[in-house]
Structure formats: C-alpha cells, structure tokens
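We were asked to recover a plausible sequence for a given structure. The inputs and outputs are reproduced exactly as logged, with field labels preserved.

PROBLEM: sequence recovery
POSITIONS: 266
GIVEN STRUCTURE:
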C-alpha cells in the first residue's frame, strides 16, 4: 500500500511540474519573496534563500499586489519588495491587498485604502474583508452584506455571516443554516446545510446530519454525505475520514488511496 501511495504521489508531482513549465515565462521573472522568522522576528527571503528584508517585524504576511502587510507591535502597514515602507504602520489591523485595495481597521472601524495609502472607502464598518470579483464582504450592526469599490451596497445586510466570493460564489449563513449566493445576491444553493466551506476546484464541502459530502456550483450533491470529516479538494484530491480511518478520494468520489488506521501519510 505504501509503495502504491508513493508511486501515486510521484505521478502527481510530475504532472504538476509539467503544467508549471507551460506557464507564461514572464510570470517566472517576477521576484518572489517569502516570510521567514529568526529570533522571534519576521522578514523576507527570496527563492535563493537570500535575506531581502531583515527580520524586524512581529508579523509579516505574504506579498499580494506587490505589497505585503507587516506589523510592529500592534501597528500595521505595508512594504514593497525592496522592504521600503509604502504605507506607514498606523493601523490597528489590516488585511492583504486584493484587486488593488486593502481593508484596514482603526479605532474599531474598518474601511479601504488604495496602494498609495489613500482612504478610498471611509472607516465606517464593524468588519471589512477582501475585494473578490469586485465585491467585498462588510459587517454592520452584526449583519453582513457586500459593497462594490464605490461603496455602494450591492447585497443588503441580512446575513449572520458571509465570506468573500470564491470561484464566483460566496457562502452565507442565516437562521443557523448555510448556503451560497452569486454576485447578484441570488441564492444559488439554498440555506439548508449545517456548515459549508468555500468552493475549491469546482466543489464545496458541506455538512448535514453530522456528515460531510460535496456539492457542485449547481447545488447538486455529487459526493454523498457519508464522511465524518473531509478536506477541501486540492490538486484533484480530498483527504477524508470514515469510521476512524483516513483515505483520499477524487472528484468523482472514487477512493484513490485506501483507508488507513491513521492520517500519517497526509
């Protein structure tokens, strides 16, 4: 069994490597910096392991839209790939940039800034997430809705919880039930599940009657509610648990790696 698993993972690695080689070569030239930690502080290294930004921050997040959110104590701001502070560390919290805007928090209110640090949407919300597909989830008076980049309310404040849009749909919660809406606010998958996760690779894990399965974007249950736990799909596979044993299934629900007594081969 272990031999089969190793061969299977090597095949996946080969396919992924081949796909990566077919990507646009221009993308490969973009500098890639990753956070690293040393003596309790964080900085950034490049792909060769060279230190580009010395470890001097309490928190350092991944780069997004060519800027990275960093924190010194309880103050958040943004740096560029040269380590230069582009947006001063003056916010109580900040999310990463997405679609050239970032949500920031100051004095218990959230709003949005652009990459020049200008406030584009006033700090007026109880929470603000990332812009995805032109919309951002925001909270006001313990209800969630969605705004566009002009701060127009596109989807009303009516949900107990809502996540960012992912693969064209956003998960929402109302009256203790979960479902999915599209960018027009229409319920595409009805509020019927005890829990749902974001869509990954066209499928979303859902929970009902204490069992997990997967739905597609039409709301069809394509993998039955029969598992005690599942992970979201990644590279075509989901790690699942059933009767205290772990295995892997593909997107057709077929068992790819037989169930074992533990999850040591994750």
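RECOVERED SEQUENCE:
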């Amino acid at each position: 069994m272990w031999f089969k698993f190793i061969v299977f993972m090597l095949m996946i690695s080969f396919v992924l490597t081949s796909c990566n080689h077919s990507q646009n070569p221009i993308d490969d030239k973009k500098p890639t910096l990753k956070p690293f930690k040393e003596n309790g502080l964080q900085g950034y290294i490049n792909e060769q392991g060279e230190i580009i930004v010395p470890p001097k921050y309490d928190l350092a997040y991944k780069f997004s839209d060519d800027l990275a959110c960093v924190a010194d104590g309880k103050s958040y701001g943004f740096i560029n790939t040269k380590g230069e502070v582009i947006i001063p560390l003056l916010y109580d919290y900040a999310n990463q940039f997405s679609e050239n805007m970032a949500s920031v928090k100051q004095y218990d209110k959230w709003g949005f800034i652009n990459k020049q640090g200008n406030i584009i949407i006033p700090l007026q919300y109880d929470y603000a997430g990332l812009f995805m597909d032109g919309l951002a989830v925001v909270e006001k008076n313990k209800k969630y809705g969605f705004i566009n980049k002009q701060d127009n309310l596109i989807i009303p404040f009516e949900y107990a919880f809502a996540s960012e849009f992912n693969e064209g749909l956003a998960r929402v919660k109302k009256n203790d039930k979960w479902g999915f809406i599209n960018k027009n606010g229409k319920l595409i998958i009805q509020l019927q599940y005890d829990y749902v996760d974001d869509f990954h690779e066209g499928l979303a894990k859902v929970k009902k009657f204490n069992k997990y399965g997967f739905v597609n974007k039409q709301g069809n249950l394509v993998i039955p509610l029969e598992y005690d736990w599942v992970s979201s799909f990644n590279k075509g596979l989901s790690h699942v648990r059933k009767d205290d044993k772990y295995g892997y299934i593909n997107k057709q629900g077929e068992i790819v790696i037989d169930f074992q007594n533990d999850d040591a081969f994750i």
